[in-house]
Amino acid sequence: MQKREVYKVEGDKIVRVRRTCPKCGDGVFLGDHKDRLSCGGCGYTEFKGKVPEKKP
Ligand SMILES: [Zn+2]
After folding, report:
1. Ligand 1: centre distance to CA 30 (Å)
2. 0.90 exceeded by the pTM?
3. Quick one: which of 9, 31, 41, 56 has the fewest CB in 10 Å?
4. Taking a C-beta distance cutoff of 8 angstroms, is the pair 45, 38 a contact?
5. pLDDT tens for residues 25-52?
């Protein structure tokens, strides 16, 4: 079984492509949704983007 890379390299910086749950710790990844990330274990939710888009 091939182990998938959790990080990808863009230029000279490393970008984490999957977020881990801060409550469950490393190894538990947050589910990627359209506008948020959520943990299936503890229910932690993190919304993408700090500034919500405003419709004109
Ligand atoms: Zn969790």
Report:
1. 7
2. no
3. 56
4. yes
5. 988 989 988 889 999 999 999 888 766 5
